[in-house]
Amino acid sequence: MKNRYFVIFMILSSGLLTAQNGFSDILAAGVEAGERFSNSYMTPAAEAFNYNLSSGWYDDAKVLKPGKFKIQLKAQATFSPSDRKSFILDPEEYEEIIQRSYDNTNNPPANIEVVFGDGSSSPRSVATALGENVMNQQLIIRSREATTGFLLQEDVINLPNGIGNEGLDVIPTAFIQVGVGIGAGLELKGRIIPEVTIDEAKTDLYGVGLQWELSQLLSSDQNGFPLNISVLGGLTRLNASYDFEDGAVVDGENQSIETKINSFNFSAIVGTNRKVLNFYGGLNYNLGNTQTDLLGTYSFNSNTVIFPVAATVEDPFSVDTNVSGFLGTVGAKLTLGAFNVSADYTFGEFSTASASLFFRI
């Protein structure tokens, strides 16, 4: 079976659309166990992507003059903390969950056993969507007849790898961002990636922001004021989907994963007021939500522990992740006539480096 990682969080990432199939096979352990695993596996990547999308809204505390326009090509990379690249999987916890699910069926009485592929039942670290497994990891789920201990069924589930298995240590994004001065010290901003479809993966991104320069209120002679000060609010929305091929264990129809990310950013910004080289910094508050739905019909035509006879599950589960927190940004911008280059670093639980090349009209 192919190695695999959960495609949704990489759909936007600089052409990294090498999605792998088969993640839905985790449903062979049952819907409740599959949802528990998916939460542990997906949440760090959902958080990282949310922090990534909240970054990069500003490169100066000074807004554009009325009628002025700029267009930017932005690239960003969010770094993954080491402790978010793996989580501890305890087979006994899954054994309890699967036993409970089994007992709620009409199956003959049986005892459930869950171990790793090497036979160990001790908790161990396995990859999240941001990490990688040092070696291929499997869960073996066995059901034994309650009285005799006779083996009724054994399922082997290959646990998915993360982006670390592809040699990646960051969540990268790239998009176009524009700004236009609308007067009254305001600059309207927008960011977009038109809908892109590559193989079974589809994504689009859009965002809108508004920056208000306060320094014009503090001095009647702006040219003599040493600093620019402004506030900004921005919203970014990412929609992404990936259509699965039928898994080796779980057949079905219209199987897909859909993700919606909403990331809000509120910033207070201060920057120098020079002609060529300027420095800026900001205090940011990020508020975001990621909802990922496993959709479609999943048919268990072959025996599994939880589904020993034919069974069908539709739209099995949804994983919801919320993030919030303060972040700090420091950066610099070089102005070369109409062209500008900027780079900054936003530090927090998930830190993000951002760079842009743009020109003004």
UniProtKB/TrEMBL annotation:
Family matches, as InterPro entries: DUF6588 (IPR046495)
UniProt keywords, alphabetically: Signal
Signal peptide: 1-19
Pfam family for this entry, one: DUF6588
Domain of life: Bacteria
Entry protein name: DUF5723 domain-containing protein
Provenance organism: Nonlabens dokdonensis
Higher taxonomy: Bacteria, Pseudomonadati, Bacteroidota, Flavobacteriia, Flavobacteriales
